Task: inverse folding
C-alpha cells in the first residue's frame, strides 16, 4: 500500500497494522457524516434505539458487574499487589495523580452538566406528579448516580487492567496486553492490532464529539459575556485552533510537565469556583442537601444499580436518554481514560488505585453537582421557574445561572477559563493516548506524531461541526460501547487469571524437600535440581528410596504394637508406594507417594542457560494423604528424610485425633483414590 510505504520512509513509530485501518475507518466515517449527515444520523439512531430499548438490561448488568468486581478486589488479598515491581514507587504525588485522572476523566462534563442535568431531572415531564421537594431530591439522586461510583468503575476496570499487565507483567501500555493470559504471545499479532484499532477509533471519536459540542458551549459563553459578537463558525474555528495549539504544546512537553501542571491549575480553579457558589449561594441549604443527598444515595444504591424501570413505562424514555446513554458514553470513553489513568498510576497498589479512582472523584462530583444543582433548583423555586424555562439552552444555562450571583460577569469569565483549561487537558491527554495506541507504546515517538493527532482532532471536529455531522459521530460512538463492554468483561476475567498466577508465584513457599536440608549431599541435590526426570527415573526412586523407607517404618511401627500395611504398584500405572495404618472408629492414616506428571513451560525449555529439557512433561514423586490434603514434591528426600517426613504427619494425625472437635474429619475415611 502507498500509505504503508510512506510510513516506512518517515521517521515514525506508528504501527502500520494499527494506524492504516484506523485512519481509513475514521476518514470513511467522517466523510459519511459530512456528506450525508441526516441519513447517517437517521440509520445510526435506529441502531442505537434498538440497542437501548432491547439490551438496556445488559448495559445495567455489565456496569453492575464492574462495580462489584472492583469492590471485591479492594477487599481481597489482591489489594496489596502493586502496579509494578514490589519495590516500585509512585511517579507522581497523590495530589498530582488525582488532579490528572480527574481532569482526563470527566472534567469538562462537570462544567456543562453541573446545572443542566439536575434541572433536567427536576423538570422532566415523567415526574410532574411528584412534589417539588421530592423532585429536587430525586434530581440530586440521579445526578449522583450518573456521576458516581458506577461511572468511575467503568474507567477503573480498564485502567486497572492496563496498569496491572503493563507494569506487573512488563507488557506494552496497550489494550492488547490485557488479553495476555488468554492469548499469550498472539497479542503481538493481528489479534492485538484489531483490539488497539478499536480502542484508537473509539478514543478519537469520543474526543472529537466532545471537542465539537464543547466549542459550541465556549462560543455561546463568549457571546453571552460580550467578548464575541456572535457564535459563528469563523469564531469556532479560532477557538478550536487555540485549544489544539496549546494542547499539542502541552502533549509534546510530556505528561510530567504540561499535562500535570495544567491538571493542577484546573483542579485549583474548579475548587475556587465551587467555593464561590457555596459562599454566595444558599450555604446552609447546600450543606444540608449534600448530607441528605449522600444518605439518600447510599440507601437507594442497590435499587439504583439494578433498576431498569421495567414496571414504569412512563419513565422508560427518560431511562434510555439518561442512564443508558451515560453508561454507553462512559464505556465508549473508557479506552482513552483508562489508558491515561494507567499511564500515571505506576507504583500504586491495587487497593490504593481502586479506592482513589472510585471514591475521591465520586466524592468531589457529589459535592460539585450538589452545590451547583441544588443552588439552581433553589433559585428556580425562588424565581418562579426562570431557570427551568431555559432547559433547552444547555450551552447557556451555566452562564444564566451565574447571573443570580454577585460579580456575575467576572465569574462567567473565570468559568470560561476553567472550561477552556478542561478542554486543553482532555485534548492533550487524548493526543498522548492516541499516539500511545497507534505506536504500540513506543517511547521515542517524534513530536510530529503528536501534532498529527492534534491536527486530526481539530480538522475533523470543525468539518463535522460545520456540516452538522457531529451528532452522527456521537451516535456511532454510543453504538460501539456495547461490544466494548463485552471486551471489558474479558478484561475482568483476564485480570483475575493474572492475579491468581501472581499470588501463587509470590506466595509459593520453598519446597518441602528443603525443610531438612543441612548442606549434606549438596552436590547430589544440585544434580537432581537441574535434572528433569522421565517416568522410569521416578519409578526407580520409588523402588530404591521410598519403598525401603516405608518397609523400615512398618517394622518400627510393629515393634511399638501398631500394625502398618504397605501397598505399591511399580510395574504398571498408577505407580505409587503407600503406607497405611487402619482404624475401626476413625479414619485411616495414609501417607503415599505417586509418580505424577508435570508440564514444563516453553520459556524454560527454550532457555539456553537452564537445565536441558527435551519433553513437554517431566515426572516427580508427589505425596498424597488419607484426608485429601494437598501433597507436594519430595524428589530430593533421602531415605531417612522420607522416614522423618512420614513421622511428622503421623504425629500431626495423633495430635488431631486427641481433640474431640475434629471428630467430623476423623470419624470417616475421606480419601478418594489419589493415584488416579
Result:
Amino acid at each position: 500500500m502507498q500509505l504503508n510505504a510512506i510510513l516506512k520512509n518517515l521517521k515514525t513509530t506508528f504501527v502500520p497494522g494499527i494506524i492504516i485501518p484506523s485512519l481509513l475507518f475514521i476518514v470513511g466515517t467522517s466523510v459519511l457524516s459530512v456528506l450525508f449527515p441526516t441519513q447517517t444520523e437517521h440509520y445510526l439512531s435506529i441502531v442505537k434505539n434498538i440497542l437501548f430499548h432491547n439490551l438496556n438490561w445488559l448495559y445495567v448488568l455489565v456496569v453492575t458487574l464492574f462495580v462489584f468486581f472492583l469492590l471485591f478486589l479492594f477487599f481481597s488479598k489482591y489489594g496489596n499487589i502493586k502496579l509494578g515491581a514490589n519495590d516500585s514507587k509512585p511517579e507522581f504525588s497523590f495530589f498530582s495523580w488525582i488532579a490528572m485522572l480527574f481532569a482526563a476523566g470527566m472534567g469538562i462534563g462537570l462544567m456543562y452538566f453541573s446545572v443542566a442535568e439536575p434541572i433536567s431531572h427536576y423538570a422532566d415531564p415523567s415526574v410532574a406528579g411528584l412534589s417539588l421537594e421530592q423532585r429536587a431530591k430525586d434530581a440530586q439522586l440521579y445526578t449522583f448516580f450518573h456521576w458516581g461510583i458506577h461511572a468511575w468503575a467503568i474507567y477503573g476496570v480498564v485502567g486497572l487492567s492496563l496498569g496491572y499487565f503493563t507494569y506487573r507483567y512488563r507488557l506494552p501500555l496497550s489494550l492488547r496486553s490485557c488479553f495476555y493470559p488468554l492469548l499469550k504471545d498472539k497479542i503481538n499479532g493481528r489479534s492485538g492490532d484489531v483490539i488497539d484499532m478499536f480502542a484508537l477509533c473509539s478514543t478519537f471519536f469520543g474526543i472529537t464529539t466532545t471537542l465539537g459540542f464543547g466549542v459550541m458551549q465556549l462560543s455561546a459563553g463568549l457571546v453571552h459575556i460580550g467578548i464575541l459578537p456572535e457564535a459563528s463558525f469563523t469564531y469556532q474555528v479560532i477557538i478550536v485552533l487555540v485549544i489544539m495549539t496549546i494542547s499539542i504544546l502541552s502533549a509534546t512537553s510530556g505528561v510530567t510537565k504540561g499535562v500535570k501542571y495544567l491538571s493542577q491549575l484546573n483542579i485549583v480553579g474548579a475548587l475556587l469556583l465551587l467555593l464561590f457558589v457555596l459562599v454566595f449561594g444558599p450555604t446552609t441549604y447546600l450543606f444540608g442537601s449534600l448530607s441528605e443527598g449522600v444518605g439518600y444515595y447510599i440507601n437507594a444504591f442497590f435499587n439504583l444499580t439494578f433498576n431498569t424501570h421495567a414496571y414504569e413505562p412512563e419513565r422508560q424514555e427518560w431511562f434510555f436518554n439518561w442512564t443508558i446513554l451515560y453508561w454507553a458514553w462512559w464505556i465508549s470513553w473508557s479506552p482513552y481514560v483508562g489508558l491515561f489513568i494507567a499511564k500515571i498510576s505506576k507504583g500504586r497498589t491495587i487497593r490504593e488505585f481502586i479506592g482513589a479512582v472510585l471514591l475521591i472523584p465520586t466524592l468531589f462530583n457529589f459535592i460539585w453537582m450538589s452545590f451547583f444543582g441544588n443552588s439552581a433548583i433553589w433559585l428556580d423555586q425562588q424565581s418562579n421557574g426562570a431557570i427551568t424555562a431555559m432547559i433547552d439552552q444547555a450551552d447557556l444555562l451555566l452562564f444564566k445561572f451565574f447571573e443570580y450571583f454577585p460579580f456575575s460577569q467576572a465569574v462567567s469569565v473565570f468559568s470560561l477559563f476553567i472550561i477552556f483549561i478542561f478542554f486543553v487537558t482532555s485534548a492533550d491527554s487524548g493526543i498522548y493516548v492516541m499516539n500511545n495506541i497507534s505506536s504500540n507504546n513506543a517511547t521515542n515517538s517524534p513530536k510530529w506524531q503528536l501534532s498529527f493527532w492534534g491536527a486530526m482532532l481539530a480538522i475533523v471536529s470543525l468539518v463535522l461541526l460545520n456540516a452538522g455531522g457531529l451528532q452522527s459521530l456521537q451516535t456511532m460512538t454510543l453504538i460501539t460501547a456495547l461490544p466494548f463492554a463485552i471486551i471489558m468483561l474479558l478484561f475482568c476475567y483476564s485480570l483475575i487469571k493474572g492475579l491468581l498466577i501472581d499470588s501463587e508465584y509470590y506466595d509459593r513457599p520453598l519446597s518441602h524437600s528443603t525443610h531438612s536440608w543441612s548442606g549434606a549431599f549438596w552436590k547430589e541435590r544440585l544434580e537432581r535440581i537441574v535434572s528433569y526426570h522421565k517416568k522410569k527415573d521416578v519409578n526407580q526412586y520409588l523402588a530404591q528410596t521410598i519403598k525401603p523407607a516405608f518397609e523400615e517404618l512398618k517394622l518400627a511401627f510393629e515393634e511399638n504394637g501398631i500394625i502398618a500395611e504397605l501397598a505399591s504398584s511399580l510395574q504398571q500405572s498408577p505407580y505409587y508406594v503407600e503406607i497405611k495404618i487402619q482404624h475401626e472408629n476413625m479414619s485411616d492414616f495414609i501417607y503415599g507417594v505417586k509418580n505424577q506428571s508435570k508440564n514444563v513451560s516453553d520459556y524454560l525449555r527454550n532457555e539456553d542457560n537452564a537445565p536441558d529439557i527435551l519433553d513437554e512433561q517431566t515426572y516427580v514423586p508427589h505425596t498424597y494423604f488419607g484426608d485429601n490434603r494437598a501433597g507436594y514434591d519430595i524428589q530430593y528426600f533421602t531415605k531417612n528424610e522420607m522416614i522423618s517426613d512420614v513421622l511428622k504427619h503421623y504425629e500431626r494425625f495423633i495430635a488431631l485425633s486427641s481433640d474431640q472437635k475434629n471428630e467430623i474429619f476423623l470419624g470417616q475415611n475421606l480419601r478418594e483414590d489419589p493415584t488416579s
